[in-house]
Specification:
With about 110 residues, the chain is mainly α.
């Protein structure tokens, strides 16, 4: 029983650390509040879908970055999707990076 409590405390500390370091924001808490007895795996399912979608988007972004000349409109579209899905799960740092990337797209900054 003590071991279980210790693990629960460790998970709570790790979760809090993600907020403290700015990886997650309040949107993640709202997702957690939607989870209940009728849908006990809601957060896990949403995050799993996010990771699946993110892997696909990142692959598309990488392919677009390999092309010359760069298609900034296409890259911006991918980053817009990535920013939206990151925002919906509370992925604050990813959302912030997507905003910066989109700014590089808007200004045609291939180095950025």
């Amino acid at each position: 029983m003590e071991r279980n409590n210790q693990l629960q405390r460790q998970v709570a500390l790790m979760r809090q650390s993600l907020f403290d370091q700015g990886y997650l924001d309040e949107q993640f808490v709202q997702l957690e509040e939607l989870q209940d007895d009728t849908n006990p795996n809601f957060v896990e399912e949403v995050v799993t879908l996010y990771y699946r979608d993110s892997a696909r988007l990142i692959a598309s972004i990488e392919q677009a970055l390999d092309k010359s000349p760069l298609d900034f409109n296409k890259l911006d579209s991918y980053m817009h999707q990535f920013k939206g899905s990151s925002s919906s799960i509370g992925g604050r740092k990813v959302k912030t990076e997507c905003s910066q990337f989109r700014e590089y797209c808007r200004t045609g900054n291939g180095e950025g």
